[in-house]
# Entry
Amino acid sequence: MDFPAAVAQFASGPDKQLNLKSATGAVDTAVRAGARLVVLPENSMYAAPDPAEDLTAHAEDLDGPFVTALSVAARAAGITVVAGLTERLPEPARPANTLVAIGADGAIRAVYRKVHLYDAFGYRESDHITPADITEPAVFDVDGLRWGMLTCYDLRFPEAARYLVDAGAVALALPAAWLAGPAKEDHWQVLARARAIENTAYVLAAGQTGPVCCGQSIIVDPMGIVVAGAGEAPGVAVATVSSTRLEEVRLTNPSLGNRRFQVEPARLAPR
Ligand SMILES: O=C(O)CNC(=O)[C@H](CS)NC(=O)CCC(=O)C(=O)O
# Structure
């Protein structure tokens, strides 16, 4: 099974209407480029201009305006859409940083709430967001290929990707808002490639663009080769995700099967 998949990048801001236009525009561009699935960035629905802002007022439910409009767009385009939003949780809890995978029929196929919050490099995401517990792996199937989802800072935790791969994922969708900076941009690409190599899996990493974030959305194949990239400007990059290529790489590099360490099932670590 071979099918073209896309990563899309733009910068969302405080204007939800504008963000929705960027998101649905990206779906259109992706489908016109032949993609069967498109990964949009983390926080596609809303990005706070001030990192100290209380996000509660902007959060939405999964049947709220953003996901509903994106479902309509996915269904009209006939492709799978993965995107991030700030999700309302029952008060007084802070919102969740959530990903949805919407099928080509417009129905939600999987939901993932960010487990590792970005309390690093001077940020304190946990001041505004509730970290999710570790639950069932967030996987979904598209045309016979199993996909898993991770969010941004989760990329730095190899066990989070491995959890999805152990659940059968052969492609990882990674919406992000990766903060810019020369060493940070190196981390982004090196970590995305490392997750692809060590899991012999595709990685589709889609990030917000500048000035705050670094863009540079990429598609990495199971050998760790960057097969498509979107550069710095808003846009879309497309590459073929191929089960034949996957099988060839896994025959050549059977590292998943060569593991020696006995790994405990993932559990929620105390916070
Ligand atoms: O604050 C913003 O405007 C946008 N950023 C985000 O929404 C999120 C949470 S603060 N960013 C990350 O997780 C970046 C991770 C990262 O950059 C790394 O791991 O190095």
User: Anything to note?
Assistant: The first helix runs from residue 16 to 32.
